[in-house]
Amino acid sequence: FTSDFQTIDREISFNFVGVARSILDLISAFAVILYVLPAFLVWMAPMLWFYYKTQKVYRKTAREMKRLSSTARSPIFQHFNETINGLITMRAFDETQRFQDKCGDNVNFFTRTIMCQATIGRWLSVRLQGLGAVTLFWTALAVTLFPDALDAGLAGLAMNYSMQATGTLQGFIESFTELELKMNGIERVKYYS
Predict the structure, then answer these.
(1) pLDDT range class, residue 110, cuts 50, 70, 90
(2) CA of 59: how far to CAs of 14, 101, 123, 150, in Å?
(3) Which of 2, 20, 28, 136 has the fewest Cβ atoms within 10 Å of its own Cβ atom?
(4) Confidence band for 7, pLDDT divided at 50, 70 and 90
(5) Can you tell me the distance from the alpha carbon of 193 to that of 37, in angstroms, rounded to the nearest whole number?
(6) Per-residue H/E/C for the chain
(7) Contact yes or no for 174/56 (Cβ under 8 A)
(8) What pLDDT was estimated at residue 89?
(9) What average pLDDT does this structure show over 26-37?
C-alpha cells in the first residue's frame, strides 16, 4: 500500500511528462516527413491504424496483468506477516512445512504474473519494430520512386525522421500504457480509502 503512495507521488508526474514529450515529438516528426515527402501520407493512415490496433490490444492486456500482479503481491506480504505473528504456534504444532509451501505458492503465482507482463512487453516490442521496419520501407520506397522530387539532403532527412517517428510512436505507446498502469495505484488507494 505504501508503494502505491510512492507511485502516485513520484512516478506519475514523470509519466505525464513522458507522454506529453512523445506527443510533441510525434507531431514534429510527422510534420517534417509530410513537408519533405507528401507521398508518405499514403502510408501514414494505415500505419497509424495498425499502431492504434496494436496499442489497444496491448493496453487492455497489460492493464489486467498489472491488476493481477498487484493482487498477487498482497497475499505474499499478508502471509509473511501472519507467519511472523504466529511463529511460536507454528513451531508448537509442527506446521512450518505447510506455511513454507503456502509462501512458495504465493511467490510462484506472483512470479508468473511478472513473467506474463514481460512477455506482453516483448509482444508489443516485436509488433512495433515490425511496423517501424515497414514504415521505413515505405519511406525509402517513396524516396527511390521520386528521385527528382528530392535532393539527397531532404531524402536523408525524410529517412531519419521516419526512423525517429517509429521509435517515438513505440515510446509513446509504452509511456502512455505505463502511465495507465501507474494509475492502478490510484485505483487501489481509492478502493482502500
Answers:
(1) very high
(2) 19, 34, 12, 39
(3) 2
(4) low
(5) 54
(6) CHHHHHHHHHHHHHHHHHHHHHHHHHHHHHHHHHHHCHHHHHHHHHHHHHHHHHHHHHHHHHHHHHHHHHHHHHHHHHHHHHHHHCHHHHHHCCCHHHHHHHHHHHHHHHHHHHHHHHHHHHHHHHHHHHHHHHHHHHHHHHHHHCCCCCCHHHHHHHHHHHHHHHHHHHHHHHHHHHHHHHHHHHHHHHHHC
(7) no
(8) 80
(9) 87
pLDDT digits (tens, 9 = 90+) for 84-95: 888 788 778 888
Asked whether the beta carbons of 40 and 158 are under 8 A apart, the reply is yes
Give the pLDDT confidence of 43-58 residue by residue, as tens digits: 888 988 998 899 889 8
Distances (CA, A) of 87 to 75, 82, 96, 101: 17, 8, 8, 15
Give this prediction's pTM: 0.75
* Closest to 21 in 3D by CA, of 182, 179, 130, 186: 179
Q: Are 25 and 173 a contacting pair, CB within 8 Å?
A: no
Short-list 81, 76, 66, CA closest to 107: 76
